[in-house]
Amino acid sequence: MPTVQVNLYAGLRSYIGGKASVAVEVSPDQTVRELLAGLGIPPEHTRILFVNGRPATTNTPVSEGDQVGVFPAIGGG
Amino acid sequence: MSLILRVNMSEPCVRVEESAEAYRELGGRALTSALVAAEVPPTCHPLSAENKLVIAPGILTGSGAICAGRLSIGGKSPLTGTIKESNAGGMAALHLAALGIKAIVVEGEPPKGKWFRLVVTKDGAKLEPADGLAGLGNYDTVARQFQEFGNDVACISIGQAGEMRAGAASVAVTDMEGRPTRHCGRGGMGAVMGAKRIKVIVIDPAGGERPKPIEREAFQAALRKFAGILTKHPLTGQTLPTYGTNALANVINEAGAFPTRNFSEGRFEGVEPISGERQHDMILDRNGIIAHGCHRGCTIRCSRIYVDEAGQYVTKGPEYETVWAHGADCGISDLDAIARMDRMDDDFGLDTIETGVAIGVAMEAGVLPFGDAQGAIRLLEEVGKGTPLGRLVASGAEALGKVYGVRRIPTVKGQSIPAYDPRAVQGIGVTYATSTMGADHTAGYAVTANVLGVGGRVDPLKTEGQVELSRNLQIATAAIDAAGLCLFVAFAVLDDSSALDAICEMLAAFYGRPFGPADFLAMGKRVLAQERRFNTAAGFTAARDRLPDFFRTEKLPPHEATFDVPDDELDQVFNFT
Hints:
The complex is a heterodimer. Chain A is mainly beta. Chain A is 10% helix and 29% strand. Chain A contains one helix and five strands. By secondary structure, chain B is an alpha+beta fold. Chain B has 23 helices and 17 strands. In chain B, the strands form four sheets. A six-stranded mixed β-sheet of chain B has the order 2-1-6-3-4-5. Chain B has a six-stranded mixed β-sheet with strand order 8-7-12-9-10-11. Chain B has a three-stranded antiparallel β-sheet with strand order 13-14-15. In chain B, helix 1 (28-39) runs parallel beside helix 21, helix 13 (373-385) packs across helix 14 and helix 19 (489-495) packs across helix 20. Chain A binds chain B through residues 7, 9-11, 13, 20, 47-48, 50, 53-55, 69, 71-77, and chain B through 233-235, 238-240, 242-248, 250-251, 254-256, 267, 272, 276-277, 302, 319-321, 441-442, 445, 447-448, 451-454, 457, 459-461, 487-488, 491, 558-559.
């Protein structure tokens, strides 16, 4: 099965046992929403999404080799 | 009570005067910029007798409002040549407000070769000789004041960089623990204080009476509403206290906008060891402190206390900008080394952004290699020694880059660009180019909608919508800076319109007259218009509202992006003035 790398940040790392990233198998036509659901992450706990460093939404499709970045609400400056 | 302290260094003497009617409702940036615009000739030399150092707490500071402890310091900047307002947290603004002081205005030409201390109490203020403090860093300078005056005072001070009148010199403000960790960093206001020969200002709030809102019950109701919004918002209520400002490192790196090795790449392979997540774990492992406020009445508590492996205090934070400037921008991924440099910056009295970027430019010039953490520390030590090389670092990235013949110098109007590459965050590029302050992310933080999903979404890699985004944020920010509010309240304001309502309800109750969101934005526009007029009179034209050309010509990996917002669109940012 093709895989994507999902990088989780801040408090979201607790969903994958404190690790920073996880490889996830994906099927064709899968979106970020299904990816998060598979990891047990409620969408309302996420705020900032990237696929390959570009801004994404839960509707963005993912495919083999993609890097997905998932953050909660974050700010500073 | 609404007092302005006039500190005339030509005499030298202090005069206390009632604030003029025109200034009665102003505070923070609105007051510093109004006083500078009215009293400082725009073409004067920033280190001359004609320039003034204006220090003002915000409108709501001391009123009981939360997250409203900002201290604004204004004048003509020796770094940029523009008008300047730089603000910081810490305890000084609250103490000044408690004494009914709206502003301290330091003016005139001090006697040669002497240093002074200004002591401010409920009975007024006096200048005292302070030659014994000359050459000391901020830490030693303030420690002597607390020893003499007790722990309930606050200090505003300069270190060696301010004494040298260097372009990157900051003004330090003491925090709740009496440490000089909060800085009005940007634009070299420490050099203006040094030119006035004031080493430290000690503020004793004893016996003072803090400003009271005219309509107390309405004020309390608005305050409760505001506090509830800040506590509930996931950013101001959770992420900022838990991970601090440096939670941004991974986000901005993921976005490909984390300026690396002097703005040559947008991702840093060494980000994880210097990330907010790692910083959080290291601090807790070493029994440091997270969720630390920089002044009384802060509910966000984004600061932290950083300790070494032995558990000994090193510094606060360090904050995201500092971790980036001394870290990724120099190719350094050693958080302990970065914390050491943060401590040195605070002690010497240096803007961490300007200093880190200057060291990055020195690395590009071949003075030392990228990634050389110990070399960077040694270079910074030169500032404390006052050697020619140290003076060069303290003069900022543009001066250092020119001396070494570097082409890629990331500055606008002489001030270093902060921790978001404008090629991958086009909206913040608009702010850098056009801000009245020179390159300044805080002036209109378009990273919100561009990257953080706060206040809507505008694609960071496209040009559409960026000018309007930057314009609206610059207007709102000028008003927030006037109110004395921490800019981080803006995250809640941008997401929840009732937060701006609550701020306006606080201001209305404080003034005792109607004050709504339209009045708030009108205040921001007035501040910006005044600052633009000063800069125009100082010789700044549209040609200066531009990024360095390499941002348009060099592609930034990984997105291979260039900055593409057209010049004629940049010229529309201030179409309301």
